[in-house]
Amino acid sequence: MLMMRLVVLGSGAAVPSPERNLTSIALRYEGDVFLFDCGEGTQRQMMKYKISYSKVRMILISHLHGDHIFGIPGLLYTLSIEENKRKEPLLIAGPKGTEKRIRELVSKDIPFLKIEEIDEGWNIDLGSAVIYAFRTNHSNNGVSLGYVFEEKETLRFDKEKCEKLGIKGKMFKIIESEGYIKLGKKTVKMEEITYKKKGKKIVITGDTAYSENTIKHASGSDILFHEATFMEDMRDKADEDFHSTVMDAATVANKARVKKLVLYHIGNRYKDDKEIEDEAKKIFENTVVAKDGLEIHL
Ligand SMILES: [Zn+2]
Ligand SMILES: [Zn+2]
Question: 4-152+198-297 — its CATH code?
Protein backbone atom coordinates (compact mmCIF):
# COMPACT_ATOMS: atom_id res chain seq x y z
CA MET A 1 0.00 0.00 0.00
CA LEU A 2 1.61 3.15 -1.13
CA MET A 3 0.78 6.64 -0.22
CA MET A 4 -1.49 8.55 -2.55
CA ARG A 5 -1.48 12.31 -2.51
CA LEU A 6 -4.33 13.95 -4.39
CA VAL A 7 -4.39 17.70 -4.96
CA VAL A 8 -7.14 19.67 -6.64
CA LEU A 9 -5.20 22.17 -8.74
CA GLY A 10 -8.28 23.71 -10.28
CA SER A 11 -11.88 23.31 -9.15
CA GLY A 12 -13.69 25.68 -11.50
CA ALA A 13 -15.67 25.35 -14.74
CA ALA A 14 -15.48 27.03 -18.14
CA VAL A 15 -13.85 30.36 -17.18
CA PRO A 16 -11.35 30.94 -14.36
CA SER A 17 -12.27 33.15 -11.42
CA PRO A 18 -10.17 34.65 -8.62
CA GLU A 19 -11.39 31.80 -6.39
CA ARG A 20 -11.16 28.88 -8.78
CA ASN A 21 -8.63 27.90 -11.40
CA LEU A 22 -9.70 25.68 -14.29
CA THR A 23 -9.94 21.95 -13.99
CA SER A 24 -7.02 19.79 -13.04
CA ILE A 25 -6.47 17.13 -10.40
CA ALA A 26 -3.01 15.82 -9.59
CA LEU A 27 -2.19 12.43 -8.15
CA ARG A 28 1.25 11.81 -6.71
CA TYR A 29 2.03 8.11 -6.57
CA GLU A 30 5.34 6.24 -6.33
CA GLY A 31 7.29 9.37 -7.22
CA ASP A 32 5.27 10.06 -10.37
CA VAL A 33 2.63 12.70 -11.02
CA PHE A 34 -0.55 11.92 -12.93
CA LEU A 35 -2.63 14.87 -14.07
CA PHE A 36 -6.31 14.44 -14.75
CA ASP A 37 -7.09 17.28 -17.16
CA CYS A 38 -4.91 20.34 -17.43
CA GLY A 39 -6.84 23.62 -17.61
CA GLU A 40 -5.23 27.00 -18.19
CA GLY A 41 -2.95 27.99 -15.31
CA THR A 42 -2.34 24.42 -14.11
CA GLN A 43 1.43 24.87 -14.21
CA ARG A 44 1.36 27.72 -11.74
CA GLN A 45 -1.07 25.90 -9.50
CA MET A 46 1.41 23.01 -9.40
CA MET A 47 4.10 25.34 -8.17
CA LYS A 48 1.76 26.86 -5.63
CA TYR A 49 0.61 23.52 -4.23
CA LYS A 50 3.99 21.79 -4.50
CA ILE A 51 3.36 19.24 -7.21
CA SER A 52 6.58 18.85 -9.19
CA TYR A 53 5.92 19.55 -12.88
CA SER A 54 9.07 17.70 -13.86
CA LYS A 55 7.59 14.50 -12.40
CA VAL A 56 4.51 14.51 -14.64
CA ARG A 57 4.33 11.11 -16.28
CA MET A 58 0.85 11.23 -17.78
CA ILE A 59 -1.86 13.74 -18.56
CA LEU A 60 -5.21 12.01 -18.85
CA ILE A 61 -7.72 14.14 -20.68
CA SER A 62 -11.44 13.72 -20.17
CA HIS A 63 -12.48 15.59 -23.32
CA LEU A 64 -11.28 18.36 -25.59
CA HIS A 65 -13.07 21.44 -24.25
CA GLY A 66 -10.66 24.32 -23.69
CA ASP A 67 -11.13 24.55 -19.94
CA HIS A 68 -9.59 21.06 -19.65
CA ILE A 69 -6.61 21.32 -21.99
CA PHE A 70 -5.37 24.91 -22.36
CA GLY A 71 -2.77 24.36 -19.63
CA ILE A 72 -0.97 21.76 -21.73
CA PRO A 73 1.00 24.03 -24.10
CA GLY A 74 2.42 26.10 -21.26
CA LEU A 75 3.43 23.09 -19.23
CA LEU A 76 5.06 21.40 -22.22
CA TYR A 77 6.89 24.58 -23.12
CA THR A 78 8.42 24.74 -19.65
CA LEU A 79 9.37 21.07 -19.77
CA SER A 80 10.93 21.46 -23.22
CA ILE A 81 13.17 24.26 -21.98
CA GLU A 82 14.57 21.65 -19.63
CA GLU A 83 14.39 19.08 -22.40
CA ASN A 84 17.97 17.90 -22.10
CA LYS A 85 17.33 16.86 -18.55
CA ARG A 86 14.11 15.03 -19.33
CA LYS A 87 14.54 11.47 -20.57
CA GLU A 88 11.26 9.88 -19.51
CA PRO A 89 8.38 10.03 -21.97
CA LEU A 90 5.31 12.06 -21.09
CA LEU A 91 2.08 10.46 -22.22
CA ILE A 92 -1.01 12.46 -23.06
CA ALA A 93 -4.03 10.20 -23.40
CA GLY A 94 -7.50 11.32 -24.35
CA PRO A 95 -10.48 10.55 -26.58
CA LYS A 96 -10.51 10.54 -30.39
CA GLY A 97 -9.28 13.87 -31.75
CA THR A 98 -6.71 14.38 -28.99
CA GLU A 99 -3.64 13.96 -31.18
CA LYS A 100 -4.66 16.63 -33.71
CA ARG A 101 -5.90 19.04 -31.04
CA ILE A 102 -2.79 18.81 -28.88
CA ARG A 103 -0.38 19.03 -31.83
CA GLU A 104 -2.18 22.20 -32.97
CA LEU A 105 -1.99 23.72 -29.51
CA VAL A 106 1.65 22.85 -28.95
CA SER A 107 2.91 23.45 -32.52
CA LYS A 108 6.42 22.39 -31.60
CA ASP A 109 8.22 19.09 -31.84
CA ILE A 110 8.75 17.74 -28.37
CA PRO A 111 10.79 14.52 -28.39
CA PHE A 112 9.56 13.18 -25.06
CA LEU A 113 5.87 13.70 -25.89
CA LYS A 114 3.69 10.70 -26.68
CA ILE A 115 0.02 11.07 -27.53
CA GLU A 116 -2.46 8.23 -27.47
CA GLU A 117 -6.12 8.29 -28.48
CA ILE A 118 -8.08 5.99 -26.24
CA ASP A 119 -11.59 4.85 -25.42
CA GLU A 120 -13.38 2.76 -22.83
CA GLY A 121 -11.45 -0.47 -22.40
CA TRP A 122 -8.06 1.22 -22.46
CA ASN A 123 -5.91 0.55 -19.46
CA ILE A 124 -2.33 0.90 -18.39
CA ASP A 125 -0.53 -1.28 -15.87
CA LEU A 126 1.75 0.66 -13.52
CA GLY A 127 2.94 -2.39 -11.61
CA SER A 128 1.21 -1.79 -8.31
CA ALA A 129 -1.81 -0.01 -9.80
CA VAL A 130 -3.86 0.21 -12.97
CA ILE A 131 -5.47 3.19 -14.66
CA TYR A 132 -8.41 2.65 -16.95
CA ALA A 133 -10.86 4.77 -18.91
CA PHE A 134 -14.63 4.62 -19.11
CA ARG A 135 -17.17 6.54 -21.16
CA THR A 136 -19.08 9.40 -19.64
CA ASN A 137 -21.90 11.45 -21.15
CA HIS A 138 -20.85 14.98 -22.09
CA SER A 139 -22.05 15.58 -25.63
CA ASN A 140 -23.90 14.23 -28.63
CA ASN A 141 -20.81 14.40 -30.78
CA GLY A 142 -17.48 13.27 -29.46
CA VAL A 143 -16.44 10.98 -26.71
CA SER A 144 -15.78 12.01 -23.12
CA LEU A 145 -13.94 9.82 -20.66
CA GLY A 146 -13.68 9.33 -16.94
CA TYR A 147 -10.72 7.59 -15.29
CA VAL A 148 -10.25 5.00 -12.59
CA PHE A 149 -6.95 4.73 -10.72
CA GLU A 150 -6.96 1.48 -8.81
CA GLU A 151 -4.27 -0.19 -6.77
CA LYS A 152 -3.92 -3.92 -7.14
CA GLU A 153 -4.90 -6.30 -4.40
CA THR A 154 -2.02 -7.19 -2.09
CA LEU A 155 -1.37 -10.18 0.14
CA ARG A 156 -0.87 -9.38 3.82
CA PHE A 157 0.37 -11.59 6.60
CA ASP A 158 -2.14 -12.21 9.35
CA LYS A 159 -0.11 -11.04 12.34
CA GLU A 160 -2.02 -13.03 14.93
CA LYS A 161 -1.80 -16.32 13.07
CA CYS A 162 1.88 -15.82 12.35
CA GLU A 163 2.61 -15.04 15.97
CA LYS A 164 0.76 -18.13 17.16
CA LEU A 165 2.78 -20.32 14.84
CA GLY A 166 6.01 -18.60 15.84
CA ILE A 167 6.72 -17.25 12.36
CA LYS A 168 9.12 -14.32 12.50
CA GLY A 169 12.12 -12.58 10.95
CA LYS A 170 13.65 -14.33 7.94
CA MET A 171 10.86 -16.92 7.88
CA PHE A 172 8.64 -14.41 6.09
CA LYS A 173 11.12 -14.18 3.23
CA ILE A 174 11.15 -17.99 2.92
CA ILE A 175 7.36 -18.19 2.78
CA GLU A 176 7.21 -15.41 0.22
CA SER A 177 9.65 -17.15 -2.11
CA GLU A 178 8.56 -20.78 -1.54
CA GLY A 179 4.85 -20.33 -0.92
CA TYR A 180 5.11 -22.46 2.25
CA ILE A 181 7.32 -23.12 5.25
CA LYS A 182 8.09 -26.23 7.26
CA LEU A 183 7.68 -25.86 11.01
CA GLY A 184 8.94 -29.15 12.40
CA LYS A 185 6.72 -31.78 10.82
CA LYS A 186 4.07 -29.28 9.92
CA THR A 187 3.85 -27.47 6.59
CA VAL A 188 2.21 -24.07 6.65
CA LYS A 189 1.04 -22.71 3.33
CA MET A 190 1.09 -19.06 2.38
CA GLU A 191 -2.69 -18.87 2.00
CA GLU A 192 -3.19 -20.15 5.55
CA ILE A 193 -1.50 -17.15 7.09
CA THR A 194 -2.29 -14.34 4.66
CA TYR A 195 -5.32 -12.38 3.59
CA LYS A 196 -6.06 -10.25 0.54
CA LYS A 197 -6.22 -6.52 1.03
CA LYS A 198 -8.08 -4.48 -1.54
CA GLY A 199 -6.20 -1.57 -3.08
CA LYS A 200 -7.42 2.00 -3.01
CA LYS A 201 -9.64 3.21 -5.83
CA ILE A 202 -10.00 6.76 -7.08
CA VAL A 203 -12.44 7.82 -9.78
CA ILE A 204 -12.42 11.11 -11.67
CA THR A 205 -15.32 11.89 -13.99
CA GLY A 206 -14.35 14.95 -16.01
CA ASP A 207 -17.40 16.70 -17.46
CA THR A 208 -20.51 14.58 -17.68
CA ALA A 209 -24.23 14.52 -17.25
CA TYR A 210 -25.67 11.89 -14.91
CA SER A 211 -24.46 8.55 -16.20
CA GLU A 212 -25.21 4.95 -15.25
CA ASN A 213 -21.83 4.01 -16.67
CA THR A 214 -20.14 6.23 -14.08
CA ILE A 215 -22.06 4.43 -11.34
CA LYS A 216 -20.83 1.11 -12.69
CA HIS A 217 -17.18 2.13 -12.84
CA ALA A 218 -17.15 4.17 -9.62
CA SER A 219 -18.58 1.26 -7.66
CA GLY A 220 -17.03 0.95 -4.20
CA SER A 221 -14.39 3.59 -4.79
CA ASP A 222 -12.65 5.36 -1.92
CA ILE A 223 -12.97 8.77 -3.53
CA LEU A 224 -15.18 9.90 -6.36
CA PHE A 225 -14.34 13.26 -7.91
CA HIS A 226 -17.55 14.16 -9.71
CA GLU A 227 -18.23 17.32 -11.64
CA ALA A 228 -21.05 19.53 -10.35
CA THR A 229 -21.31 22.51 -12.67
CA PHE A 230 -24.81 23.49 -11.57
CA MET A 231 -27.21 23.25 -8.67
CA GLU A 232 -30.77 22.03 -9.06
CA ASP A 233 -32.00 25.58 -9.86
CA MET A 234 -30.26 25.24 -13.25
CA ARG A 235 -31.48 21.74 -14.09
CA ASP A 236 -32.55 22.65 -17.64
CA LYS A 237 -29.23 24.26 -18.44
CA ALA A 238 -27.37 21.27 -16.98
CA ASP A 239 -29.33 18.86 -19.21
CA GLU A 240 -28.86 21.05 -22.26
CA ASP A 241 -25.05 21.24 -21.79
CA PHE A 242 -24.56 17.63 -20.65
CA HIS A 243 -23.38 18.66 -17.20
CA SER A 244 -24.33 17.36 -13.77
CA THR A 245 -26.12 19.11 -10.98
CA VAL A 246 -24.96 18.68 -7.41
CA MET A 247 -27.85 16.25 -6.92
CA ASP A 248 -26.83 14.19 -9.96
CA ALA A 249 -23.33 13.83 -8.53
CA ALA A 250 -24.65 12.90 -5.09
CA THR A 251 -27.02 10.34 -6.63
CA VAL A 252 -24.14 8.72 -8.51
CA ALA A 253 -22.04 8.62 -5.31
CA ASN A 254 -24.93 7.08 -3.42
CA LYS A 255 -25.73 4.42 -6.01
CA ALA A 256 -22.07 3.55 -6.51
CA ARG A 257 -21.61 3.26 -2.71
CA VAL A 258 -18.43 5.28 -2.74
CA LYS A 259 -16.77 6.25 0.53
CA LYS A 260 -16.32 9.94 -0.19
CA LEU A 261 -17.58 12.37 -2.81
CA VAL A 262 -15.60 15.43 -3.87
CA LEU A 263 -17.52 17.90 -6.02
CA TYR A 264 -15.46 19.87 -8.51
CA HIS A 265 -15.88 21.79 -11.81
CA ILE A 266 -18.09 24.20 -9.87
CA GLY A 267 -19.89 26.88 -11.87
CA ASN A 268 -18.82 30.48 -11.30
CA ARG A 269 -22.32 31.61 -10.36
CA TYR A 270 -22.10 29.71 -7.06
CA LYS A 271 -20.22 31.49 -4.31
CA ASP A 272 -21.39 29.61 -1.24
CA ASP A 273 -19.78 26.20 -0.83
CA LYS A 274 -21.95 25.47 2.19
CA GLU A 275 -25.10 25.78 0.08
CA ILE A 276 -23.69 23.33 -2.49
CA GLU A 277 -22.61 20.92 0.20
CA ASP A 278 -26.03 21.02 1.87
CA GLU A 279 -27.77 20.19 -1.40
CA ALA A 280 -25.49 17.18 -1.91
CA LYS A 281 -25.81 15.97 1.68
CA LYS A 282 -29.54 15.49 1.27
CA ILE A 283 -28.56 12.48 -0.85
CA PHE A 284 -24.97 11.66 0.07
CA GLU A 285 -23.59 12.60 3.47
CA ASN A 286 -19.83 12.30 3.04
CA THR A 287 -19.44 15.12 0.51
CA VAL A 288 -16.96 17.96 0.25
CA VAL A 289 -16.86 20.81 -2.24
CA ALA A 290 -13.39 21.13 -3.71
CA LYS A 291 -11.44 24.34 -3.33
CA ASP A 292 -8.22 24.91 -5.22
CA GLY A 293 -5.49 23.34 -3.16
CA LEU A 294 -7.74 20.77 -1.50
CA GLU A 295 -5.46 17.90 -0.58
CA ILE A 296 -6.37 14.33 0.24
CA HIS A 297 -3.93 11.71 1.48
CA LEU A 298 -4.83 8.07 1.54
ZN1 LIG B 1 -15.43 21.79 -18.39
ZN1 LIG C 1 -16.81 20.23 -21.21
Answer: 3.60.15.10
Q: What is the Å distance from ligand 2's center to 95 Cα?
A: 13
Domain ranges of the chain: 4-152+198-297, 155-195
Å from CA of 47 to ligand 2 middle: 25
| pTM, rounded to two decimals | 0.93
Find out whether 292 and 7 touch, Cβ atoms under 8 Å.
Answer: no
Q: How far is the CA of 249 from the centre of ligand 1 (A)?
A: 15
**63 touches 36 (CB < 8 A):** no
| pLDDT per residue of the chain (298 residues) written in tens, 0 to 9 | 578 999 999 999 999 999 999 999 999 999 999 999 999 999 999 999 999 999 999 999 999 999 999 999 999 999 988 756 787 899 999 999 999 999 999 988 899 999 999 999 999 999 999 999 999 999 867 899 999 999 999 999 999 999 999 999 999 999 999 999 998 899 999 999 999 999 999 999 999 999 999 999 999 999 999 999 999 999 999 999 999 999 999 999 999 999 999 999 999 999 999 999 999 999 999 999 999 999 999 9
Tell me the ligand closest to 209's alpha carbon: 2
Segments of 184-264 assigned E as strands: 186-189, 194-197, 201-204, 223-227, 260-264
